[in-house]
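Exercise 7. Predict the joint structure of the components listed below.
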Amino acid sequence: DAGVIQSPRHEVTEMGQEVTLRCKPISGHNSLFWYRQTMMRGLELLIYFNNNVPIDDSGMPEDRFSAKMPNASFSTLKIQPSEPRDSAVYFCASRFSGRTYNEQFFGPGTRLTVL
Amino acid sequence: SQQGEEDPQALSIQEGENATMNCSYKTSINNLQWYRQNSGRGLVHLILIRSNEREKHSGRLRVTLDTSKKSSSLLITASRAADTASYFCATDASNFGNEKLTFGTGTRLTIIP
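Solution:
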């Protein structure tokens, strides 16, 4: 199993540009999570999906952020327009919902730098 | 604020010694999990302990849970240089263990060879 796949691994962009982060969850997993990690705020849950449906997006910082999951094997997190304070490492994680426990599998992350 | 708060924030020990990290949380939980994060990598699940369990072992890891004090500890015995990483506790407060985990602030562990 390839694990959770994220792309790109690194992204450098200028303020005001649109940024799209991509995630492919582990095959068979039906829950997907987007996190953001910074030194100041630690690890924050932005949004999560069950069976491709957004369940809780209360962690999305503002309307500039949006996430979609068009099918079970792909999700995107979009920032438009990007700002320097969006610089962080963004992680995608997935799990199989229906088991009795709740282990999540994390991708390697996308390091975003907004200049 | 974070549901889980790890203590200490940073810990440095000699290789071969035991490392203990603590986690406190605020609300009732279904289970508590520990994750490790190596520098520049994603988090990796280490161990899960349910709210009705008091202690759990996995290899060199031992986790305890005290729900009356809302606290947990992670003990790594006979530490190795490869254990150098950040360690996070995560709590699941849902009734049916649905989805949402809340992560703590982490303990940065450094093992000195």
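Discussion. The two ends of chain B are 35 Å apart (CA to CA).
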